[in-house]
Amino acid sequence: RKEVEQDPGPFNVPEGATVAFNCTYSNSASQSFFWYRQDCRKEPKLLMSVYSSGNEDGRFTAQLNRASQYISLLIRDSKLSDSATYLCVVNANSGNTPLVFGKGTRLSVIA
Amino acid sequence: NAGVTQTPKFRVLKTGQSMTLLCAQDMNHEYMYWYRQDPGMGLRLIHYSVGEGTTAKGEVPDGYNVSRLKKQNFLLGLESAAPSQTSVYFCASSRGTAGRGYTFGSGTRLTVV
Asked: Which of A44, A57, A97, B112 could bridge to B81 as Cys pair (CB 3.0-4.6 Å)?
């Protein structure tokens, strides 16, 4: 089983739609969780951290389910500018080990 | 406020040539990383460093060497380039733990012919 698995998509949604991405991770000892956004031919950029209690940042909501080893990202009221690849990111073990990146889910928001 | 700077941005090498990619960060971060990104493969860790003078292997270290002589710089070397090393290379840095995420450079696009 891969360490971090994501549906590659693409997800093609109309402007204003709500879309959700899921991610599963294999290491139950993982402590840190993030969603990154990567635009075409650009570097990944941190979108948001994911906390056990769930957290929201504007139109974006992240959830963590430790029992199922599952992370989600919900985007409400999608904008054309949300079109990008969304990377699920987990640290491989507890402590200061390097982050492991999922292969990403591609989102296209269509006018 | 430069963050993480990678040089060069683009490079074409012939098979067997050598080159060094430079990563510089001005955020006083302890940890630095080199990743490669290939279509369909996602980001894969090549080498990383947890402080000045230290290096460690990542998932795909073969064919690469690194050095961290100064805290702000992390160099990635290819001694004898191969076409399989054609990729986009990203450098990243972090403050100390993974808890705050990474800051990435804008990448180096390397083609080996």
From this structure: B112
